[in-house]
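Chapter review: from sequence to fold.
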Amino acid sequence: MDGFSCRGTSVFTLNSAGVELSRGYSANVCGMSANFTVPVEADVAGGAAVVRICLDDGGMEPDITYYLCKRYGHP
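The token string follows.
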């Protein structure tokens, strides 16, 4: 896998206090765009308050690098 042209997507759910509930990762995509589905859990009353989605380098924890993140939900 070419580390310069391959990327992954990480998805995190957070509760209302900003505590991470779960995370999931897409398959890596190299040299093109792709649709993906990443199942994540939010096992708290009312579900997750925030979902955070990050473009990453396709690496594995703990060495993954996040390039761009977007939060959806309550601030």
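Two observations follow directly from the output. The radius of gyration is 13 Å. The chain is about 0% helix and 45% strand.
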